[in-house]
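Predict the 3D structure for this chain.
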Amino acid sequence: MTGSQEQKMKCVAWEMATIDYDYRRVLLNNDDKLGECSSFVDKNKIYKRLVMQIKNFDSAFDPTKAVNTKMILKKTTRYIGDVFNKSNLSVWAQSSFIWFKNNHKTHLKHEHLVRQDTVLFEDSFQKKYELLFKHRNRIAHNTHSYQQNLPTLKTLGREDYVFENYFLYFSILVLIDEIFMELYEKYLDAVEDNKI
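Done. Predicted structure below.
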């Protein structure tokens, strides 16, 4: 899922560069310093650029009002619950799934999303994303192969260990995807309205 999202981010960036030649120069010269588009920093750069592009067409555009984060969050958590409710993964990772069902409303709040023109997530949400990013890197670069299979007691005792949860990770990825789809749709509408 992370790889697919990275490719989507790159496609969004290239689509904007197809229309905005100044941004094309920035992108081709790597002035934005976009990496693989998997880190929060990279995703936030594309978010800021997408909002800026929409504002070029509509100066009154406000992403905090235009993106319905309440609906996106509700739809995402319901979707994750429905998809995994009777799956093998919910059995294999039963305690994580139960924690997610009981606690997602406390730790995933719509107020944490689309904070302003320049910030995709609030700090507390970014920290959860960083755990996902760290896990993604461990899997992508096979660093688990030389580490212990089970977490140590010290790891289990960490306050943020409960957030190392696949269901939370899936939710975060779906939330990001939904936010970008909604923003991208608004971008396409703005481009079409201005006949570019």
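The chain has one domain: 2-193.
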